[in-house]
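User: Quick sanity check before I run a bigger batch. Here is a single chain. Can you write out its predicted 3D structure?
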Amino acid sequence: MIPMEQRELGRTGRSVSVVGQGTWQLGGDWGEVAEEDAFGVLDAAVEGGVTFFDTADVYGDGRSERLIGRYLARRPDADVFVATKMGRRADQLPENYTLDNFRAWNDRSRANLGVDTLDLVQLHCPPTPVYSSDEVYDALDTLVAEKRIAAYGVSVETCAEALTALARPGVASVQIILNPFRLKPLDEVLPAARAAGAGIIARVPLASGLLSGKYTADTVFAPDDHRTYNRHGEAFDQGETFSGVDYATGVAAAAEFAALAPEGLTPAQTALRWIIQQPGVTSVIPGARSVAQARSNAGAATGEPLPQRTLDAVRELYDRRIRASVHDRW
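Assistant: Done. Predicted structure follows.
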């Protein structure tokens, strides 16, 4: 196993690798992935120094969690911290976020992952009023007291939701979309998280693959890939697909971004390195559907930091190409 830098994940008291492994792809929402191929991805991540897996009970309706549970049973030597999420399997109504439902959702995730206590459970982009509910946080504290979960956090769509959650002393971490095409969290969310002692998990780090530089205006994705069926928010929040950036705009900007990659780094690695260098980021969680992708993602944690001229060029590209195309809510 290749050692990787570890950072403390906020109020969990645990340290995790600066590059984690996102596992949405393993659930099937990016096209089918066979079980052995999924295990190969997880193996490659662990061998590359990854000690943090992120999943959710809704990824493949639990398939991602079950694959991780079976994988870790096969690899007892792998010291991996597993974060999951809950809430998206129910109708998105604030009144569904109750202690009884939390217990039921936790029971399912614990069974899927094969553990008694979940390392970290995150509210999975719930309706905005949930972030302000005293009853919700009381219920989450109860889950900790009952040892169903060791810690809890939130996954958010907007900066305002993140700031509301960070005001709560029990929130250990915030998961938020952050990448060179989504800079708004840098302004308030990351400083607020540092002040609160909460961790930041950066998700959608490659803007659904745009920042890899591999796609063109003519690229066709599979019908069961959310990059086909959710480009305009038809199935869930538009920000989850291409970071909410119009595809044509994103492809053009990604071509410019690829030209900024320093020698020895791919465009995807450059994007991940950029995120790692943002003050307050604990871990970035790119997904992978192949061993090569998992190895490449882990490799982004090694080497020299990006120079200031590259950081400045990313900001200039965002201001010129992306800012005007992204709705103010993000």
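The mean pLDDT is 94.

User: Great, the batch can go ahead then.
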